[in-house]
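Training component of the fellowship. As part of building independent skills, the fellow (R.M.) carried out the full modelling exercise for a liganded target. The chosen ligand was adenosine-5'-diphosphate. The inputs are recorded below so that the supervisory panel can assess the work.
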Amino acid sequence: MYNNPNLIFEQSIPQGKTGWRSPSNIALVKYWGKKAVQIPLNPSISFTLSKSYTETTVEYSPAAEGESAVQFFLEGEINEQFGEKIHAYFKGLDTIFPFLKQLKFTIRSSNTFPHSAGIASSASGMSALALCLCSIEQKHFGGMESKEAFFQKASYLARLGSGSACRSLYGGMVSWGKVDGRIETSDLWGTQQIKNVHPDFLTFNDSILIVDAAQKKVSSRIGHGLMNSNPFSAERFKQAQSNILRLMDVLKIGDMDEFINITESEALTLHAMMMTSNPYYLLMKPNTLNIIERIFDFRESTGIPVCFTLDAGPNIHLLYPEKVSSEVKVFIDDELKTFLHQSRIIEDRVGNGPENLNL
Ligand code: ADP
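Fellow's submitted model of the complex:
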């Protein structure tokens, strides 16, 4: 829908630099299963994070014939595997941004958290990159007519790089995918749900407990594909539609018990889908389960509203309102730290969305 043959340099081809910081996000209702091209088979909704982010700078200059188009550095070191994926992504955008083939790129990126371990570096990484491309368009071709249109286009482009990346373009709560009866939602980009959210949920903490920082054995791309033959997928897609509608109400009225119920059930359902795929696989580790059991016990014995979710990986996102954070910190130190990889925790919280690095 954004195809535009006019976005091509007619005379001199410029050089320049742009950069964005963009956050990861953690889904409460999970996206798992897609069809072409990057259209989700069920809607999802997430918290945008604050401290788990990617910073990406893109330097561009005229490309000479046969020159390598993308050089990608991760944490200061060349990463050919990531670079090739980005090159393929740029090629796929040739009708939206025809100017990409006139340029060569040096991209430097760093993540504040381990990548490929289920903390959605694909979301922060691809949203940062999509924003850089939109900034290049804006600088040299005038870009979109409003800030809203700019971010909507960046969300659309981020989605093409990695589905859940389209939810990282806004702060607070963001949905993606058509929700029955909600006209503001779309399969093509993320929609900020901030207007409908009870303030308790906008100060939520997310202590990300690193059980295992290693690269997961089955990528999300393969996991999504396995949903096409999963015998439970049709029911799962229906369940997600109903869970997201329930959760949107819960978020509005501030019903903590229902929030916990839906959030934990969604996390376990996501992993149940992996276990019931063919071939089946597990991304949880023994210490993931040890922590989950401690959370159940702690909540039952204290009544403190703390719960967990999981992304497609073994690491626990411990979610709780700000007002119980001191009790939860003691719980983490006393009971959970022992199960962590090098006692590693990323103390995160709901964030405000991407920031331009103004280079
Ligand atoms: P994760 O749970 O971290 O999202 P995935 O396997 O789903 O794990 O995605 C990891 C992929 O995301 C990497 O292989 C790479 O292609 C991409 N990625 C990670 N970090 C960045 C970054 N900073 N810039 C661009 N792409 C990135």
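The panel noted the following from the submitted structure. The mean pLDDT is 96. The chain has two domains: 16-195, 199-349.
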